[in-house]
Automatic annotation (TrEMBL):
Classification via InterPro entries: Dis3_CSD2, NA-bd_OB-fold, PIN-like_dom_sf, PIN_dom, RNase_II/R, RNase_II/R_CS, RNR_Ribonuclease, Rrp44_CSD1
GO biological process: nuclear mRNA surveillance of mRNA 3'-end processing; rRNA catabolic process; rRNA processing
Cofactor(s) required for function per UniProt: Mg(2+)
Organism annotation: Nyssa sinensis
Location of the PIN domain: 52-168
Similarity annotation: Belongs to the RNR ribonuclease family.
Name this polypeptide is given: S1 motif domain-containing protein
Length: 938
């Protein structure tokens, strides 16, 4: 049956046009019930023994997705009209309900009611889209009742809705309908009630919501402005829009980057944050200029001390409150205030960033009796998140557990946001539990790959076929002495090298990268999964792969003595590493050696070894030194990071030893050729596809970001020129002293002042914005790690299309979609970094729990009541107090901000920035369930 479906839309020119589309209706869409004799039951999803089939409305899906994901809820019909509405309102929830519907272990069925002739409803005159959709849901429910009534026997079809009017109409029409709460109560599982999001007052099912009596309750926060007023205020320049970022060291201080004033607005105190969470898009009103915060003697706060809520509801004078952390890429902003920065207050929330949080309940005595509802405070492991008030019927089971809680609302008369329990992770302090918390906090998908994804893999054992060798697009390079150099124990080897001396005195040098796209094809479940994961994640004790292990460790891994498919970049270079020519080819290689960095370095250093492999290594290293020198001459920065290496017990997975990661010449050699390959590929793909190449840029740091480094350098007599990356690189080279570690420490501090490098679509920016500041390269991309980064998979497809090997996939013609992929890659890359850092932090705590240690540290920040130190041996950072905790002001200590010194009033003792001090390191637990490293001056 054919019907016409019409709607109106506004064009880019502002005209309103009517769009009419043909809408095909069918009568052969099956119901999904396995016991149905009328429909095709070969693909049935609902249980044959189902006593109740649930049909959920849109708001139930949007608000109660945590409940729906619980295995106790099954035999659910999700209507296509509901799916479409959820997709338009919340893409995250849409993805979760789609995952439920495609999970073979769950009994969720999508019924295309919009295309069934008996369930399609046409909008009536004057009917709102919402009312039309509610009517469509009721019609579909009634169809299921009539359709299954004679067949289902005792099976009941039940509409689940919290909408009072929808429930009333359903009852009048003879449809069985229940609220979420009444249905869950009838199941007799009290724990499920904890999962419920409390519905707003206009909905039904308010039995468990306390009477707030707004007129009798104290208003704690200012009401948020309505969106109409916010929009008007933004247009008139009264309000400023931006993303709120809460200080990682101090949860009572936040920043909003505002394009409208070209600066960051500082928000002090919970009152001025006005119920905004980290990551919310907010509207901010500037405070009068006499209330802006200028530079002053900052003290070290401690977010682990008990919160004084009354203090922090008004603009707070609390400053830095650092926690012990690994400092790699921590932004200088988190530890410094710049003079006369604009200060403001949040007046409205434009877009919420609420999600699920990991933590534990604040310890409390068990109430008298059992089984009743108890109100408890949830404390997130992320110190930027305020305490969340939940109600639970299983307090005794949760007090010693790490749990997940979701936020539901935050009323202006409530000191805390309200939320609900989602699930239990495990025992507090258990290493596996705490590792899972790291993954959840950073939105890392560590689930096993689905059967649909694994079905995309070629059968094992896999080997290069005669068809591969005969393929004209693929060059046979098995005769070359190809080798790989990686960290010890590396199994996912995605790059290899070769270096052959040519008769003319030049060298042929090749970078060979695993040909992942030969196995990962666009539009397949395998490709979709890799798109979402974005990157492999490296934790201290394990690796979470972007692709299944058969690919990462076998089929694609360029292991020694096996033939593998590769994508090769091959140069002819002079002995001074000047590139004469470049070519790109798909290839077949056979690696002759898989070396570790230590093994490669040992070969190069052993003058007795003159074999071909060692000779090739030395030639490549000589070329790499020329390449590195030229890169530095162009202005590339040689920065440093405090990368930590753990020795892990193979049985318990606990850390046995910890130390700084050592960089050798072999590491630098490999890095140089990977950088060169990435730059060559970037030039090639951009030349062929100017509007849709995936590139990587590194924006220049702002003057404000470099200010802390300048101040520290000046305090120790260094004059750093930061006018260009070249000037900064030269200044860093000159920053040497008697202390061999001094230069590395300055470079670590410089690293923190840098912006993050990001992926982008070339059509979104102008060529001057493509520049990579750190590498001083006008063009850059990622090509060399497709096993572990999806960005490289995209770039491989672009390179293959530029060579005419394959057609350009259709996605590259949709620039907005490519931009969305780049945005997801940036999000996933950042999360993987944060997860790796959190894993190091966790294992550092585990290591020091049984090993209190005395060690050397360097002062990196001076504060009025102490200083912040960096411990080179262990790569950790934290506060050292000179005055008693909680003591106001500096007491007997005086701070010289200009010279970055803190000294006793009587002049007997002083400490200065970058000075070496000895400290004691131990694990303490000042608050239950929040262990931390305590650093004490010896």
């Amino acid at each position: 049956m054919l019907k016409s479906k019409s709607f109106v839309r506004k064009t880019k020119q502002g005209k309103v046009v009517k769009v009419v589309r043909e809408h095909y209706l069918r009568d052969d869409i099956y119901c999904g019930a396995s016991f149905c004799k009328v429909c095709d039951s070969s693909a049935a999803r609902l249980s044959s023994s189902a006593s109740t089939i649930l049909i959920v409305d849109t708001n139930v899906v949007l608000n109660q997705i945590d409940l729906l994901e619980n295995p106790a809820i099954d035999d659910v019909v999700v209507l296509s009209v509901v799916l479409e509405e959820v997709k338009n309102k919340n893409l995250s929830v849409y993805n979760r309900i789609r995952a439920l519907c495609s999970d073979s272990m769950r009994k969720f069925f999508v019924f295309s009611n919009e295309y069934h002739k008996d369930t399609y409803v046409k909008a009536m005159v004057g009917e709102s889209p919402n009312d039309r959709n509610d009517r469509a849901i009721r019609v579909a429910t009634q169809w299921y009742q009539n359709h299954l009534g004679p067949l289902g026997g005792a099976t009941q079809v039940l509409l689940i809705t919290n909408d009072r009017e929808n429930k009333r109409k359903a009852t009048e029409e003879g449809i069985s309908a229940e609220t979420v709460e009444s249905y869950v109560k009838a199941l007799g599982e009290p724990g499920l009630l904890d999962l419920l999001v409390q519905p707003p007052s206009e909905d039904v099912g308010m039995e468990e919501v306390e009477d707030l009596r707004p007129s009798k309750r104290k208003v704690i926060y200012t009401e948020h402005k309505p969106m109409s007023e916010i929009t008007s205020g933004l247009h008139r320049g009264i309000y400023h829009q931006g993303k709120l970022r809460v200080n990682r060291y101090n949860p009572f201080e936040a920043y909003v980057g505002s394009e409208s004033i070209g600066d960051e607005i500082i928000i002090y105190g919970r009152g001025n944050m006005n119920r905004a969470f980290d990551g919310d898009i907010v509207a901010v009103e500037l405070l009068p200029q006499d209330q802006w915060h200028g530079e002053k003697s900052l003290s070290i706060g401690d977010v682990d001390d008990e919160e004084d809520e009354e203090v922090h509801l008004v603009p707070s004078s609390a400053d830095d409150a650092p926690r012990v952390t690994n400092p790699v890429q921590d932004t200088a902003r988190d530890m410094n205030l710049v003079a006369c920065r604009p200060s403001g207050r949040v007046v409205g929330i434009i877009k919420r960033n609420w999600h699920s949080y990991c933590g534990s309940l604040e310890p409390m005595p068990m109430p008298a009796g059992s089984g009743g509802v108890t109100h408890a405070l949830f404390v997130s492991k992320d110190r930027r998140v305020p305490k969340i008030r939940i109600q639970t019927r299983q307090l005794g089971n949760l007090l010693d557990k790490r749990i997940i809680v979701a936020v539901d609302s935050w009323d202006c008369i409530s000191r805390y946001p309200a939320g609900h329990y989602v699930r239990t992770i495990g025992e507090i302090g258990d290493r596996d539990t705490e590792s899972e918390v790291v993954l959840i906090e950073n939105d890392i998908d560590a689930r096993p790959f689905s059967s649909q994804v694994l079905a995309c893999l070629p059968p094992l054992p896999w080997s290069v076929s005669s068809e591969d060798l005969a393929n004209p697009i693929r060059q046979d390079l098995r005769h070359l002495c190809v080798f790989s150099v990686d960290p010890p124990g590396c199994k996912d080897i995605d790059d290899a090298l070769h270096c052959t001396a040519l008769p003319n005195g030049n060298f042929e040098v090749g970078v060979h990268i695993a040909d992942v796209t030969n196995f990962v094809h666009p539009g397949t479940p395998l490709d979709d999964e890799a798109t979402q994961r974005g990157t492999s994640v490296y934790l201290v004790e394990r690796r979470i792969d972007m692709l299944p292990k058969p690919l990462t460790e076998d089929i694609c891994s360029l292991r020694a003595d096996v033939e593998r498919l590769a994508f090769s970049v091959i140069w002819e270079m002079t002995p001074e590493a000047e590139i004469i020519s470049t070519r790109y080819t798909k290839s077949v290689i056979k690696s002759c050696a898989a070396l570790s960095y230590i093994e490669a370095q040992a070969r190069m250093d052993d003058s007795r070894l003159m074999d071909p492999l060692t000779t090739d290594l030395r030639n490549m290293n000589a070329l790499a030194k020329f390449m590195r020198l030229r890169r530095i001459e162009r202005g590339a920065l040689t920065l440093a990071s405090a990368e930590v290496k753990f020795q892990i017990d193979t049985e318990t997975h606990d850390p046995l030893d910890i130390g700084m990661y050592q960089i050798r010449e072999a590491n630098q050699m490999v890095e140089e050729f990977m950088l060169a390959a990435n730059i060559s590929v970037a030039e090639k793909i951009l030349k062929h596809f100017p509007p849709c190449s995936l590139l990587r840029r590194h924006p220049s740091p702002t003057k404000e970001m470099l200010e802390p480094l300048l101040r520290t350098a000046a305090a120790v007599g260094l004059n750093l020129d930061m006018s260009t990356s070249k000037a900064l690189a030269d200044s860093l080279d000159r920053a040497v002293g008697d202390d061999p570690y001094f230069n590395k420490l300055i470079r670590i501090l410089a690293t923190r002042c840098m912006t993050q490098a990001v992926y982008f679509c070339s059509g979104d920016l102008s060529p001057p914005e493509f520049f990579h500041y750190g590498l001083a390269a006008p063009l850059y991309t990622h090509f060399t790690s497709p096993i572990r980064r999806y960005a490289d998979v995209v770039v491989h497809r672009l390179l293959a299309a530029s060579l005419g090997i394959y057609k350009l996939p259709i996605i590259f013609q949709d620039r907005p979609q490519l931009t969305r992929i780049a945005d997801n890659l940036n999000y996933r890359h950042r999360n993987a970094q944060m997860a790796g850092r959190s894993s190091v932090e966790l294992h550092t705590l585990i290591y020091f729990r049984k090993r209190p240690t005395d060690t050397e540290a360097r002062i990196v920040k001076i504060r009025s009541n102490g200083f912040i130190v960096f411990v080179p041996k262990y790569g950790i950072e934290g506060p050292v107090y000179l005055t008693s905790r909680g003591e106001k002001g500096g007491g007997e200590w005086f701070v010289d901000e200009q010279q970055q010194k803190v000294k006793k009033i009587d002049g007997s003792i002083s400490y200065s920035v970058l000075q070496t001090v000895r400290i004691h390191v131990e694990v303490v637990e000042p608050q239950p369930n929040r262990p931390k490293l305590q650093l004490t001056l010896i």
